[in-house]
Structures are given as structure tokens and as C-alpha cells.
Amino acid sequence: MNHPIGPRNNRILVIDDNPSIHDDFRKILSPWPEDAQPDFFGEPQAEVRRVEFQVDCASQGEEGLKAIQVAAERGQPYAMVFVDMRMPPGWDGVETIRHIWAQYPEMQVVICTAYSEISWEEQVREMSKSDNLLILKKPFDNIEVLQLAHALTQKWNLALEVNCRLRDLDELVKQRTLELQTTNEELKKENRERRQAEQALRRSEERFSKAFKASPIPLAILSAGEQLFVDANQGFLALTGYGAGELIGRSPAHLKLWAGSEGQAALSAKDPRELSVRNVPGRFRSKTGRVADILLSAEMIELDGQSHLLVTAQDITEQIQLQNQLQQARKMEAVGQLAAGVAHDFNNILTVVQGNASLLLTIRDPEGVEAKLLQSICTAAERASRLVRQLLAFSRQQPLELRPVNLRETLATVSDILPRILTESVKVTLHAPPGLPEVNADSAMLEALIMNLAFNARDAMPEGGQLKIAVEAVELTASNTGSNPDARPGNFVRLTVSDTGTGIAPEVLPRIFDPFFTTKPVGKGTGLGLATVYGIARQHQGWVEVSSQVGDGTTFLVFMPALSSRQPRLAPKEPPPSATKAGRETILVVEDEPDLRDLVAQVLESRDYRVITAASGMKALETWAQRIGKIDLLLTDMVMPDGLTGRKLAERLRGDDPRLRVIFTSGYTAGMPGSDLDNVEQSNFLAKPYRPATLLQVVRDCLDRPLTRAAAPA
Predict the structure, then answer these.
(1) What is the Cα–Cα distance from 237 to 247, expressed in whole angstroms?
(2) CATH number of the structural domain spanning residue 272
(3) Phi, psi values for residue 158, rounded to 5°
(4) What domain range includes position 382?
(5) N or C of the chain: less Cβ packing under 10 Å?
(6) By the 8 A CB rule, do 509 and 495 touch?
(7) Per-residue pLDDT for 346 more than 80?
(8) Which whole-number Å values give the CA distances from 690 to 161, 378, 572, 582, 639, in the listed order?
(9) Which residue, 367, 390, 413, sits at the end of a domain?
(10) 216 and 96, same domain (yes or no)
(11) 623-667: per-residue pLDDT in tens?
């Protein structure tokens, strides 16, 4: 590395208390005329370069030191300094030089003195002898001053360049030393590796055999040509299920070990003498027929002078299962969010369809053809509403009414329904021992879960069979949670539903919980049954496990946390009164869906309410500004297009009128992205889709309820 050397430093400082001395130095050190060159150099010089010195002056030692400091800070240091020996008052020349050298030891100094009584030896001794010091007797000769200026500034510049070169050399030496150290370490490492390799080559066959047999990794040795088994350790025998006598002398192909072509192709694709395989996925079929996923590795080794293959088969079946389950969970989560968003839009549509059909039914002859058609519309809308609830259950967004539930009682309720939905050829067995712990659950959701599993079992047994439903308390520990990533230690209630049906093919099994996936013919199933089971279990902080063999039936295990006696019990909600009365209050309806907004206004006006509508939060603010204090109730959608949500709208309006009552409505449910429904009082919330009667009841209840702080939006 080369440090850049700047232009020559010809800056000189004169420290003398006599201003005339300052002028003399400036005249001497200024560029000399052409006719002065012979005086300085002794004879004319054709190419003498004129040197321009920059001369600064100071009258006292303290002033001179300050000038040196300022120049150094600006990056324009002085190369030398002329110092007068006597400068009363203040520092004399000796003291000034000591102060200078204390901070700038490289400074070239010339002492100017007119006193002959002080000998050269005394001055040098007093100055602690330095090679940066010269003495100039006054009166001084001009040529001598020029010579000193040239020589000492050149010496300062040469010293600077030497220091830079020395730093370059130091850095180069450090770099080369580091490179040598690195090379030395590499050589040491290579020597260690070489010694280890030599030791490995000298290792006896007996020691190799012991290490081979004791390894927990499945290992086998095959001949390089025909690939016959020469030896195998206990791990490999356990993986394949064969004994040593059954394995030795036979090839993997002869034993039909390969359940796929990947592993066999990896061992036969290359020249055996150059074969090297690293972590190639493959599948082994054991003696019992179990198929295991493996990572296959193989290396060529020499044994008794002959080439052999050392094969490693690492069982990764459980790891792949965990990865697949994690991918499935992520996929289900993403699809659940999509399903929840679809349910929101669908709820708006259903509210309009169901509401208008219900209104028309009230003005039609119940026995007429139109009434029957309208009733069909209401029934279809109700079925669609149930489909939406299934979507929400799958996505774990369906609101729950949790309370302590005993699954023994739930099975008793379901047992009355099962005979009506199952064929006579299906025999049902129920088992629920007394003393089961309770679970904190929505009983209707649990019944739906059991019914969906029963439907699935019925369709898997078209020719009849046996359906077993059992409930039991289980305690899981860290050692028996299995490979399911959702499983965890604790006390649980386990629901088991097993059938003797056709079973599920291995390629289908990973997809059975996907929404809208079904193997049934078109029109025979929605593909939401098992997806709903999955969603309900997850919504109750539980999980589902399934095992199946084609032709041997299927078993579903549903785990839900057991409710301990110390956990709080939630009291069931009181049902709302069924009758509604007319009102005279003024209601502001804020809804961005035009058809739904018109329907709500029509229903409320049919009960004599005064209704004002707005298509957005901003429009509602404009209407409110004209009617502050004259609106009794705000009925607002939660999610609106102009960025002002129902919650924010309610907060702003209640800031003007704290007595304003608020009802929120949404096709979303609490916890769904964009719903903004966290901490909303359930009594102040109307979920879509809803019937006109439900709308009237909720409005009347809100208006009749005493106004408290709890009624304010969170």
C-alpha cells in the first residue's frame, strides 16, 4: 500500500520579538532574483528551481506554539521554525522549543542567538541534544539562512516520505505475515487430515467391523459389480425387516427392496468405480410390506483389494410426514382466510335474498303458488346460510357459544338422529363411559362435527358395515404425542369415529380436509364435510388425526382439551324475547350495498321507524351534521369503501352525542381480517345474514336497553 505524498512543505515559522527580524527573514526567504543564484550555488545553474517559502511570524513563544497548533489542525504544518533565544517577557527560546517538541517532536528548529557568552555545548546540553536542532548566530548571513531553510525543509519532507514508506512497509509486512500464518495453518490442517487419512487406511478390519455394526445409521456393504449384499448392520436389518441370513448374498432387486425407481437408478447410473451418491430420495419396501422414505448415500470403498459400495439409508418417513402436515396446515390456513372472505360477500347477498323473500311472504296468501315459491327461496337461502356457516367453521371464524359440554350427553343427543340418516345396513355402536371430563365447547358445533363424520362413514359403506363412535379421557405426554405437529401434552377428551368401509387411498389421504375436495360424483357432496370437521376441531383448540387402509375402513380421532374444575364456566345466554313492537325513533342506516340498504330501510319503515340512509361513512357524517341530536340509533356496517369504518364512524358520532345508540352489522365475524370486530359487545352486533324479524328484534332491544358506558363502541 502506498501512502500519497503531497506537495513539498515549505512553510516556515519565525518566532522573534523583533519585528525587523521578521522582515529580514521574509526578504531572505522570498524568491531570489536571477543574479543571486551564483552567490548561493557558487556558479550559474541552468535549471535551478526557485523555491518559494511561506513565512509566518510570531513575537512570543506562546504565540508561536499556538500558530503551530492551528497550522497542524488545518493540515498545513510548518516544516521548520526559527526561534530567538531571548524573547522577554514570556518563554525564552529554550522553553519555547521544549513546548514545541513536547507536541511536535519532528519539528526542525533553528535557534537564533546574538549572545556569544553561551557556548555551543551548553546550548546543546540544555536542549537535551536533538538531531532536529541547529544554531544560527546573529547577525546571520543571508546565504546561510537560505541554505538552512532549503536543507531543513527538505529534511522534514524527506522524513515525512520515509515515515510513509515505513508505514507502507509495516503494512506490507503485516499482510505478508498474515498470509504466511494462513498458509501455515492450511498446511497444518492438510497435514492433520493427511495423518488422519493415513490412520484410517491403517485401521484394522476388526475395528472397522465394530464401528460398522455399532452405528445407529442403517449401513450396508454391497459388491460393486452385481450389487449383492456383503454385510449389513443392525439398523439396516431393522429398516428392511430381513435377517442377516436372508440378506447376505442377495441384491436389493432380488429382495424387491425398491418401492420406487429413484434409489435403484442412483446406484446404477454411473460407473461403479466412480460412483458417489449423496442424499438421493428413495423408498424401501420392508419384508412386511411397509414402505419407508429414505435418503440414500453410497461411496466406493476398498475391502480386501476389491471395490465395494458402502450404502447409507436414512429413514426420513416421519420427517416427511411432519413436513406434509405443516404444508397442509399452512394451506388450510390460507384457504380458510379465502373462505372467510367469500362468506362475508355471500352473507350480504343472502341477507337481501332472504329478507325480500320474507317480506313478500307476509303479503301473500300462505296457500298460494307464489307463497310456495317464496318459501322455496327462503329454504334455499337457509341452506346457503348453512353452507356459509360451514365455510366459517372450516376457517375457524364462526363465532362460538362456549359452555361446559359433556360429550356423553352430546352422543346421547346424536344417537336419536343417527338412525334417521344412516341406512339400516349400517350398525352403530356408541360408547361413552360415565365420569368424562367436560370440554369448553359449542354443543351445536360438536353435534355438527359428529354428524359430518357419520355422513362420511355412511358414504364409505354403500353395502353396509359397522360404525363405532366412542369417547374417552386421555392424557398425552411429550413421549406419546406422535408425529402430529398439532398434538401437545395435556389432558384431553378423545372422540373416535371408525367405520368398516372402503378406506381412503394413500394418494387421496393428504387432501381429505381440503375444502371442496371430494371423490363423490358431481352433485353428491360439497366437499366441505371433513373440512368443517377440521375447522371445528381447530376452533376448539383441538386437532384431528386419521388412519385408513384401502378395504379396511377409516378411523378419525378428534382431540379436545379437557376442562378442569378450576376453569371458569360460561353461563348460557338468555334467549331474546320473540315479540317486537313498533317505534317512532329515528334511525341512521349506513350500508354500502344498495339492495341491502333499501331492504333494511323498508323493514324498519314497516314498523313506523323514521329511517335515514347513507352509502358510506363520509356520507353519514354529512347527514349527521344536519341532524345532530335528532338521531336515536346508528345501524352501521363495519367495513365500508371510503376508509371510515363503522367503528370509527360510531366513535365520531358518539363524541357529538353520547346518548346515541349503536348497532354494528357485518358479514364478517370477530377475528377475521379486516373485520374490526374485536371487543364489540355481542348485544350491539347483528351478524349477516339475518331475517327481518331478527333485525327488528335487535333494534328494539337496543333502543329499550338502558344506556350505559358498556353500550359505547370499544
Answers:
(1) 8
(2) 3.30.450.20
(3) -65, -40
(4) 325-390
(5) N
(6) no
(7) no
(8) 92, 12, 21, 19, 17
(9) 390
(10) no
(11) 999 988 889 999 999 888 777 888 899 999 999 999 999 999 887
